[in-house]
Structures are given as C-alpha cells and as structure tokens.
Specification:
The chain is α/β, with parallel strands linked by helices. The chain contains nine helices and 22 strands. A hairpin with a 2-residue loop joins strand 10 and strand 11. Helix 6 runs antiparallel to helix 7 and helix 6 packs parallel to helix 9. It is globular, with a radius of gyration of 20 Å.
Amino acid sequence: MPNITINTSPTGRSPENKYFFGQATTHLDLSRPKYNKIGVQADYDDFYNIMSQQNNYKHDLEFTSVGIRFRVCTNDDRHAQFVRNMFTVTPKDRPVDFTILHNTDVDIPEPKIYVHLDKKEMLIAGTTFLGEIKKGVFGIISFMLPEQDILPMHCSAFTYNDTTNLMFGLSGTGKTTLSSDPDYKLVGDDEIAWNDHGIEMIETGCYAKSEGLTPETHKTIFDAVELAKSRDTLVVENPSAANARLSYPIDCVENAYHKPQQFDHPDNIFFLTMDAKGVFPPVSKITGDTVRRFFETGYTSQMPGTEAGTNEIKPLFSPCYGSPFMPRAVSVYSDLLMKKIEQHNCNVYLINTGMDSSGVRYPLDFTRNCVKTAIDLEVKDNSQDVLKTLEQLIAE
C-alpha cells in the first residue's frame, strides 16, 4: 500500500487510561499508580464484549519478539502498516502467547487500554496514536521477561569499533538520533532485551522523531526515510505536532542489522538525560550506587507531546528510563541490570544531551564526539559528584 500520513487523536500516549486485570496483577508495582492501575473485572468483561463483537477487523497480524508470539487484530490500514514496519510479521504457524484487539471505530469518549494478564489479552480503543500498540507490546514483554532472568530495556543498541553499546533514555533524549550515527551499525533504536547470551532486538523497525531532520545532521535517519518512501512503507505521524514521528522498517537503514540475531554482552552503557537545567557535564563515567540511582530515577526533562497533555519542557523522573512500560517493581529491573553489569564488566556513562550551564543546548556533533570518546578512551570516574547533583534535583 502507499505511504501513509496519520494525524492522531490524542497526539501522545494515554498512560492514565491503562488498566490491568487478573490474578497476576499481584506482581505489579502499585507504588506507581499512574501507570499500574488495577481495574474491575466487570469493566473488562463489558469492554471485551464491545471489542469482540466488532466485525471490521480487516488485519490479523502475528509476530514473535524475544520468544513471545503476539497476534494483533486491527480495523485500521494505517495501524496495520505500522505493525508491519515495527515487527516482522510471520505466518500463523502456532498458538499465540498474547492477543491485542485494536479498533479505531469503537465510539468511546476517551482512550481505553485494558490488559488482562491472566487471559493474555490487550484491548485498545478510543485512540489513534500509533505508539499505544508499540508500547503496549513492550509493556507486556517487560512484565514477562524478568521471570526468565531476561532484562527488558527501553534503550537503543549499536556496535562500533568492535564494541557493543546500549543507550538508555526517555523519548526526546536522543536515543534514535545518537544510535543512528553513520559510524555505527544499528541493532535497534528503542527496545532491547539482555539475556544470558547477550542482547537482542525486540523490534525490527524504527520510530524516529522528525523534528530537525536533515541530511546534514541526521543522515542515517534521513536516508532511511527516503528509502522507506520509495518502497511505500513510510508512516508519517502527526507531521505538524511537536512530537511528529516517522515509522519505517529497520532494513531501510543501510548501516543496521536487518535480521533478528544474538549480539555480545554490552561493553558500554550510556544513560541519556536531556538536562534543561544545565547542571550535568556533557559526559561522566559513573559506577556502583550512582548507576543504580540514575537507573531507578531516570532523570530527564520531558519534551512536549511525548504524552497527551504535555505541552512544555518540565523535569521528569521515570524509573528504568521507561516507567510507563515497566510494570513490575523497579528493583526487579535494577537488580537485573546491576547483576549483568557486574558479571560482564560494563562501563557506564551519563551523557547530557541537553543544555550547558549558560542554557545553550549541546550541538549534536559535540554529543556524538562525547560518546565516541567514552568508547575509545577512559573517562574519569566522577560518580559521587554526579550522584550528589542528582540527589539535589530530586530534593527540589
């Protein structure tokens, strides 16, 4: 089908409208009620009846990600193309582990995202925002993988100069842009799993912000978008909004791994923060408790449009650099991370992709050089100074 442009309503995710159901909700972290709310079974049953009685599910798509098989049923051609872009759709060859019913025609006053952990079902209606499907899948994966001692991560991954590298960060901090450096080979731009053998991609597509996209500053992404356009696989979301995005298959990225595979354990891990206060240096090596504290708080400055109702930059603390998608206790994920870092002797760095002390944002080329310097050279460990600054920000 031809390239697609979609203007969604709302123009961001709706985490406040997401509810979990079933006995397995006992494993949720209820200390974060904005993202982990338990619903009433009768409400789920009523909504399921509405969704299941729809007869306009034109697309029945199945794909496997990190060993979990999903089935997505949607009525919308645009969302079906988005699923094909972001995951490798395969023939229906075995039972599925989780079913997602998605319908844009259901007439309800606000978004509903219902997840039944026992029945292995997810229902999405009342929203046309593409990210609800993508992050819905990741939230399910993030709930299921820790039971297998596998760490789900809201991060990008790439190889460079015989090293394997991870970049953690919230939307807008630069994961996609920085990991798509022309000198790197991209593994994945947003979601990665770390198992006993190394890392592997969760998705086989990219979901990149389009703001400021030029062949000079974002050559890899720009070229991938042009190739996707020529293949009629490009999905443009909310082109006039602050969080406008582009979806395309990863095989449109020339310097990327195009098929799911196993990679080595990471040599370097980068925590990205878009620090609008300008209190953190552009690059810092961190160790021990500082690593855990940054991961468990996930400080950044939230960018406009990332979630519905967010129209200005504001400080944000998001555990695991992805609190809306990490439904178990934060310590489940941080314990796994710290164990794997120690086992595999990983270097960890904090990268400020935001402002300097005078309020000027660091140029992209400068930040790229900071990352490469950290990979190629030993950066001084200043964990305690960075941790002290973080604690001051939290206190404020």
